[in-house]
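To: structure desk
From: M.T.
Subject: fold request, one chain
Message: Could you run this one when you get a chance? Sequence is below, nothing fancy, just the single chain.
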Amino acid sequence: MAISPAPSLTSVPGRCMITETGLLTTLLTEGDADWDPRLKDILAAFAAAAGPLTKHIPLNSPPPSQKPPASPLPPSSNNNPTISPYGDDWDLLWLGSCGVSGHTYIPYKDPAVPPRDREHELIGFKYGHAPFPDDARKRRQRLAVDVREGVCTQAYAVSLRGAHKLLRLVNKGMDTMVDHWLGLRCGDGGLKCVAPWPQIFDDAKSISSMDLAEGQERGEPTGAKGDSVLEYSIRVNAKAILEGEGMDQWVKNWA
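Reply: Done. Structure tokens follow.
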């Protein structure tokens, strides 16, 4: 999976970049995106739930008002090989958001999931459906969710199929903010979207260990103290990791 700064979907270079490379999947991030240094393990856990979930999401979903209440799906025992660890039937993985809504989810274990009071939920489940289950949080579980609406694009991945769809959809016009527009396309069946909740990528909340201003200490927050959903920040701890310090020496955002 290639990693790139998020291009403008409204510019010709931004729309064509992914489709012209021929890459099967591409991860796009905002310039101030932040993530846990254990990202590889966190994504592997999400992949194990995302793959089975995509098999239950129809490509052309009915409007939200016609959907049944949100409900969990059991993990799949189907071991058919796929090209992508996230399954081969998705257009967009919304890995960094401020909130998502959906109708179906699969809970999965993730020791790095933040406690409830660290979540930045701006949307949650809508249209009268049930909220994300509290029992999942108590079990330190994230949810893989079929996205019907979302806000913020700290990070998202697109498949090659999804990139071609985005190109066609953008050419029809975009009359709102990119994140809202993507959420609408996930909700109206234009794109097949899956997200982890709580989000895996966040925006930077602390001063980077490699870009400290005079008199500031590593990990000093730029906003409200402790408001990151990340237990550890790659931006804060990059220098320590490069110097070989173990996790016990990393700065934590919350206990």
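Reply (cont.): The first strand starts at residue 2 and ends at 5. Let me know if you need anything else for the meeting.
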